[in-house]
Amino acid sequence: MNLPDKHRLSDQVLDRLYRLHPKKIDLSLDRMERILAALGHPERHLPPVIHVAGTNGKGSTTAFLRAILEAAGLRVHVYTSPHLVRFAERIRLAGKLIAEDYLLELLDHCEQVNGEQPITYFEMTTALAFKAFADVPAEVLLLEVGLGGRFDATNMIDKPLSTVITPVSLDHEQFLGSDLAGIGREKAGIAKKNVPLVVAPQPDVVRKAILATAQDAGAVPVMGGDAWKCIFTDGGFLYEDFRGTLDLPQPALAGLHQQENAALAIACLRHQRTFEITENHIRKGLQTVEWPARMQNLSKTSLAGILPEGSELWLDGGHNPAAGEIVANLFRERKDLPLHLICGMMANKDTRGFLAPLSPLVTKLYGIHVPEEDSHSAEAIADMARKVGIDAEAMPGFAESLEKIGQVQNSPVRVLICGSLYLAGKVLALTEN
Description:
Layout: H1 5-20, H2 30-38, E1 49-53, H3 58-71, E2 76-79, E3 91-93, E4 96-97, H4 100-114, H5 121-135, E5 140-144, E6 162-165, H6 173-176, H7 180-187, E7 196-199, H8 204-217, E8 220-223, E9 228-232, E10 236-241, E11 244-249, H9 256-270, H10 279-288, E12 296-297, E13 312-315, H11 321-332, E14 339-343, H12 351-355, E15 362-367, H13 378-387, E16 392-394, H14 398-408, E17 414-418, H15 421-432
Parallel strand pairs: 1-5, 1-6, 2-5, 6-7, 7-8, 13-17, 14-15, 14-17, 15-16
Antiparallel strand pairs: 2-3, 3-4, 9-10, 10-11, 12-13
């Protein structure tokens, strides 16, 4: 990837921050409180904030929120993580990615303010983002939680406009544990007094935990299935709430789960009174939404040219069992082409849980190591795939896997590169060349 010099320079500074500062999350907001105070409390000078937590669909829901709000003519700040190709993707200021000069300036300022005091990479970069969001004018800020909710570095907003919880499932178990109710309580830690807490449909144990946490916080729960509903139709979906029913088209993002994510975003925007959001804004947002590495179709890229003519190439960064179910649901109805997976996953992820729902659908899997990351070995991925009934072999990388498929297949195939957002970023970086 041939990034401009300034891009490389910011990446070098951020890489140094990552290596110098502690990586272990200490489940405390003390360090955030300290650096934000030193920066002059930018968190107190932000535009209205929509705070988004959850396990699956945070990024997609945020993307729908952004598309609809921008369709309404609003300037929208966005904070998401992780990035795919370069760090600047995490910070969008009034509709545009943060400029590299400004990013370097903020990095230098925040480092000077922090001095030698301990702080994590995510805390430092979140403080940097808050400073940028406070300094650049906009009408609304979409703030995505990094991990958990209650002790996440983003949870420094006393009075957000709205809070949102996407579907909750197991992930980051080394930090959040394997108790779904406990995970639900952690995610609901973003709830604030008298602020709407808009919640996607959840498993019953999670739903009860979220409701109890919302009650303790004095939040106003807006529960999917009760206060609002998403009903699938042949051409799209129906959205229903106290204001009536909207008959909406299939969003630009692929998959039934994206209709649910879209409905959650719509529920958030229809249960606030600060901005006037019309049906036309919603329709335009559904058609213009973009979110890379979430069932992204790469069939028109040069990478797909390695495959037999008529083949499809897809990319998805989902990496937990719930994400595996979502991908399986999408491909279960598409049996016109044999499905091949190229899979790389981080060493702390449940690979067998991710692959199990896909097992009946997959013709072959190619296991790979994610370069420069703490990922499972190619052999380990292939072995775990075999244990759930998938024919698999280890390969050096995704490019080599595509070449192998292109060599041994004489007819069109459907290929999905999957298992990690880090892997997705490396794939997308190659397509930019």
